[in-house]
Backbone:
């Protein structure tokens, strides 16, 4: 009898990047970075400013080209040095610190922005997401009527509305004041988990990675120097520089 576990095909990761390299002005700012993220999982790319986090994210989004390396989604190649699926066809949701809402569109119109299909279906999706970020009361409101934290939650709803396979988030909470940040982080995390997307969250704050990540990839000088569960990365730092980075409270 074949053991059940052996006959199960192992699913390909939702997102896999292999050996990504990107040079600027003769310098490798992303230097052989590989990552695998399953659907439903949050990986934090954590590291100091300038270490290559945003460049890595932009290559996955398709707005920056790698010099070498490959990107796969659900086991399918979407980008190498000769073949390239354009950004708008990658089914990737994006959220950046200054990825502002459209000021002239209502909250509902903002959330519906990337949606196609029948009006009623779009409306149902918008209502569902606004309920889940507890902003139903603002459905016909406009961005300027919302606080910074509320605007971030609308931006999250907008990014998730088309059910992206992957969410890329680049320091999405750094514009928020401390008082709001933890609440928005927690709410964001629970919504991401419900949506079952693969998340790559870029941050330079260890605390944020510890709070949100299933896995931390610690980056320095263009390379991933350590990778693992937050507790393991925190309690077993790879070297002195990692200790210093984690104990620096900014
Ligand atoms: P991080 O997001 O970790 O702060 P970045 O990926 O933005 O780092 O940048 C990594 C390095 O690459 C930095 O030294 C930055 O100055 C450099 N860099 C990024 N984009 C460009 C560019 N378009 N041209 C030249 N250098 C760049
Ligand atoms: Mg950056």
Residues:
């Amino acid at each position: 009898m074949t053991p059940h576990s052996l006959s199960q095909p192992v699913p390909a990761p939702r997102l896999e990047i292999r050996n990504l390299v990107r040079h600027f002005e003769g310098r490798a700012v992303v230097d052989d970075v590989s990552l695998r993220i399953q659907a439903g999982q949050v990986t934090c790319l954590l590291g100091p400013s300038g270490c290559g986090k945003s460049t890595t994210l932009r290559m996955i989004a398709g707005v920056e080209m790698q010099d070498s390396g490959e990107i796969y989604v659900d086991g399918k190649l979407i980008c190498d040095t000769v073949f390239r699926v354009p950004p708008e066809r990658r089914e990737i949701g994006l959220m950046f610190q200054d990825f502002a809402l459209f000021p002239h569109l209502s909250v509902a119109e903002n959330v519906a922005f990337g949606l196609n299909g029948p009006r009623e279906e779009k409306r149902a999706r918008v209502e569902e997401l606004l309920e889940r970020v507890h902003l139903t009361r603002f459905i016909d409101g406009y961005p300027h009527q919302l606080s910074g934290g509320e605007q971030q939650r609308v931006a999250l709803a907008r990014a998730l509305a088309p059910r992206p396979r992957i969410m890329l988030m680049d320091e999405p909470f750094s514009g928020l004041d401390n008082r709001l940040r933890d609440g928005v982080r927690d709410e964001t995390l629970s919504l991401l988990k419900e949506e079952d997307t693969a998340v790559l969250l870029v941050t330079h704050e260890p605390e944020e990675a510890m709070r949100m990540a299933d896995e931390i990839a610690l980056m320095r000088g263009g390379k991933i120097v350590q990778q693992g569960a937050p507790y393991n990365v925190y309690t077993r730092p790879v070297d002195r520089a990692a200790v210093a980075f984690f104990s620096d409270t900014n």
